[in-house]
Amino acid sequence: MRPGEQTINSPGSQLKGKYTRFILVVCITLLVDQATKEILMHGLSLRENLEIVPGFFSLTHIRNTGGAFGFLAGEATRIRTFFFLAVSGLALGIIVYLYTKLPPGKPWVAGALAMIFGGALGNIVDRLRFGEVVDFLDFHVGAVHWPAFNVADSAISVGAGIVFFLALSRKI
Q1: Which among 33, 126, 138, 153 is annotated as catalytic?
Q2: What values do phi and psi take at 99, rounded to 5?
Q3: Pick the residue with more confidence: 67 or 130?
């Protein structure tokens, strides 16, 4: 072996693999999120509804100008955009920091952080493109609806759920 070369199991190659997996999960999450939104926007007009499971699940093309559950939806566009981009940027920075500090042997935490990062990035892309987020997954029981959401929101929720569960079970 020549000076400067790394073996397959060297710390440098493990580190490279750690970040490669992170980028891969982020890219897959972002790609699936943006692709599903594009398909929806080409298939359904704004506010159009396609019932998939009667009385329970529909695809509904809506735009969310606010945050979760419509937070800040009534504020001016510039204020909303600045606020959500600033908060999202801070969150992405924290996730990157936590990921760099994550010790080896924590694949569930690593995957969860990557899902959260990818989901946040998906909603940032929407805010930059449209000034709002495209939502379309509409679960309901009769007339009672859960707020519509998208793949990015799902990735954030699943990732946060994994982190929460692992924290409770003290496996972080």
Answers
A1: 153
A2: -65, -40
A3: 130
Among 13-17, 132-136, 138-142, 166-170, which stretch is predicted with the lowest mean pLDDT?
A: 13-17
Q: Report the predicted TM-score, pTM, of the whole model to 2 decimal places.
A: 0.84
49: β partners: 60
50 SS3 class: strand
- 138 tagged catalytic: no
From the list 33, 126, 135, 138, the catalytic residue is: 135
With cut-offs at 50, 70 and 90, classify the pLDDT of residue 75.
low
How many Å apart are CA 115 and CA 55, to the nearest integer? Answer: 30
What residue spans define the domains of the chain?
13-168
Neighbouring C-alpha atoms within 13 Å toward the C-beta of 170? 0
The encoded tokens of residue 142 equal: 């009769």
Active site annotation includes 153: yes
